Input
Amino acid sequence: MTFSWEISIPLLLALVVQLALLVGNAVRTHDRSVRAEQLTEKADHRISELQTELAQFKEYAARRFVTDEMMVQLETRIVGAIDRLADRLDRLFEARKQ
Output
């Protein structure tokens, strides 16, 4: 069996096709990589926006819930004061009747 270094036309054509496919895949991979980076930047920006919105909501909720809790406490104190005033008035009227 003899080995020959002769390059035939079909072999040359196959090598050219393989090289073209390799270059095409490299270009397509690069394009996908660039697109993925762009999408990543957009996602990072959106995440940043959502983090800001969440922080603002947490602050609003904390202010709102504290205010509601304080209102309940204030209402309890006012109702208690009114009840004590009513008791005093009842005792005053009872004392005048006797």
